[in-house]
Design brief:
The protein is an alpha+beta fold. The protein has two domains: about 270 residues, DD-peptidase/beta-lactamase superfamily (Beta-lactamase, 3-Layer(aba) Sandwich); about 80 residues, Lipocalin (Beta Barrel), CATH 2.40.128. The chain is about 30% helix and about 25% strand. Helix 2 runs antiparallel to helix 11 and helix 3 packs across helix 7. The chain is globular. About 40% of the residues are buried.
Amino acid sequence: MNIKTLSATLLTLALFTAGYAQTLDKAKLDQFFDRLAEKNKAMGSLTITKDDKVLYDRSIGYGQINGTEKKPLTAANRFRIGSITKMFTASMILQLVEEGKLKLTDTLDKFFPQVPNARKITIVQILWHRSGIPNVRREQNAQGNVNTIPVTKDEMLALIVKATPDFEPDTKRSYSNSGYQILGLILEKVTGKSYEEALKERITSKIGLANTYLATGNIDVSKNEALTYMNFGDGWKPVPETHPSILFSAGAIVSTPSDLAKFIRALFDGKIVSKENLDQMKTIRDGEGAGMEAMMFAGKTFYGHTGGADNYGAVLAYLPEEKLALAYTTNAKVYPVADIMKGIADIYYNKPFQIPAFESIAVSTEVLDKYVGIYSTPEAPVKFTITRNGATLYAQPPGAGSAVPLEATAQDKFKLDNGTPAGIVFEFDAAKNQMTIKRNGGQRVFTKDK
């Protein structure tokens, strides 16, 4: 090799190495999480790994609050991960396919013929949320919040059997927790083991996940499980827990960010399913893969899943070409998790990112008093009560136990963070005695009662 060729080769290698030598601005990530903690906008844990090496670990907030006694979250705390459970369920179903115990083309009548459309619904359609199996839930009754009451698998199946399909199989896509609960029941039927046992044997023991298991009862602080909280500006308050039996194979797994990062790395390294089946999981149809989703962060396509229930949530995202895993778990969603993840990725890739100030603007009490009153709408039999306490405006939704503070973003606009990117926006028009509530792309106009 001559000198010119050698120099060109060395330059190419240097450029290649520079492109992949990611210098993580840990100080800025710390500042971002310090701000979230200081302003009570989040509680939770983050792990960033690359090539199995932990680049960043951070926990903010508390796993247990008893009055003034607060137990800080640490990397050892375990969290409910919601629908990330579906990645584990899909992986085990595909393992059964590899073992010849199941075919993707098997129809549901082979296992549960009593389910509507069972002869038409295939395993592959359930995996991709294309079965038409609707999300079912028990009706609220005099017992109060039925989500806190355990449900048996037979009761859950009976609800699915009784429900009308959303559509004919494979004609469209609609996210179905109930479909993934059916997959959990199929897993148990084929293996002759409980979902909990199958999870341990097929994944957690196999790749060494010591902090990952199926929740079967209420959150247990003696196992380092983080309790769930919400903060509307008046301190952290506990949130009622959905009993994990209701979520089962669609959302009842408990884990840590460290274990989640290890799981997705093992999945992409072929230690859980074959490359062919991993490619199946990654194949996105109408926005959904098989127990997997594609996510865009910093202009790059990550694979993984999100999860949430009550006020806990989680995101697991993996970039195969860089072997980069981002795992975030939270027991208190206030500032939208999607915005937190965007900030994490932008900081990681040294992209411009402004750490939010979370400073609301000041509105005079004279202006706030013009908005105080009871508002109703002919579109729905509900009333909102708007009150003022000091320099803060409060909204009391229908049926709510207490009023919640609103954050002023303009003289006539106020925001209530509810864990979604947009939050809930209240806009007032004092001249017309009207209040417009905007959420999830929709809006409703209320008029002040005279």
